[in-house]
Amino acid sequence: MTLRLQLVREFEHSAPLCACALERTGRYAFAGAWERNLLRWDLQSGAKTLIPGAESWIVALALPPSNQYLLAGDHVGQVLCWSLRDDPMRPVWSVQAHHGPAKAVAYSANERLVASGGADGTVRLWDLQRGALIRSCGDFADHVEAVAFHPDGRQVLAAGRDCVIKGWDIETGRETFSYPLDGLRAHNPTQDIQYGGGRDLAIRRDGKLLACCGRAGYSRPASVLLFDVASGRQSQQLTAAAPDSIYCSIAFHPDGSLLALGSSVTSGELGVWQPGQERPLATIPLPGPGFDFDLSANGRRAIVALSKGPQRTYPDRGSLAVYEVLND
Amino acid sequence: MKERVDLLSRRQLLSGAVAAAALGASGLASDLAAAHEPAAPGARKRLLLLFLSGGASQLETWDPKPDTKTGGPFRSIATSVSGVHISELLPHTSRMVHRLAILRGVNTRIPDHFEGHYVLQSGRTVPGYPVLTSVVARLLERPGDVLPGCVTLRRRAPQAYTDVGDAGFLGARYEAIRVIDGLPPENLVRPETFSEESARAQDRLRRRADERFALGRATDPVAAYGSTFEKAAALMRRRDLFDLEREPMQLRDRYGRHMFGRNCLLARRLLEAGVSCVKVLHHDWDAHTDNFHWQQVRCGEFDRTFTTLIEDLDTRGMLTDTLVVVMGEMGRTPRINNRLGRDHWGNAWSLALAGCGVKPGVVHGRTNADGTAVVDGEVNAAQLFHTFLRALGLNPGGYHEVGGQRIPIGDPAASAIREVLA
Question: Does B284 contact A192 at a Cβ distance shorter than 8 Å?
Answer without folding.
Answer: yes
